Amino acid sequence: MKKIIFLLAGIVLLTSTVNQQGDGAFDAQINTLKQECKELIKATRYEGSKVTYYNAGTKQTKSVELFMFLPNEYQFAVSTKKCAVPVTLRLYDAAADVEERTMIKEYKNVQGKNFVFNTTELNKIYRKKVPEVERLKNLHIDYVIGSGKTAKEAIVLVMGHKA
Question: Which domain holds residue 98?
Answer without folding.
Answer: 2-161
